[in-house]
What does this fold into?
Amino acid sequence: YLIARKLKGSTQKWLVTAAAFLFILLIGVSRVVLGAHFPSDVIGGYALGLIWLYLWIALYEVLQVKLTKRVKIRT
It folds into this structure.
C-alpha cells in the first residue's frame, strides 16, 4: 500500500498491487498444497489479514490528515 501510494502512474500502481496480490495468493495456495493448512484456514487468514490491512490503512490516512493540518498551522 505504501509503495503503491507513492507511485505517480496508475499503471505502476496497478502493477505493484497486482504483484502483491499474486504473491499473497500464491503463499496461501502453497500452504494448502504442502498440507500445512486446510483451505478454510487460508481463507480465514485472508479475511483477517484484509481486515487488519484496512484498519491500518484507515489509521494511516487519519494520521496523515492530522499531521498535514498540524504542519500547515505551524507554517
User: Anything to note?
Assistant: Residues 2-74 form one domain.
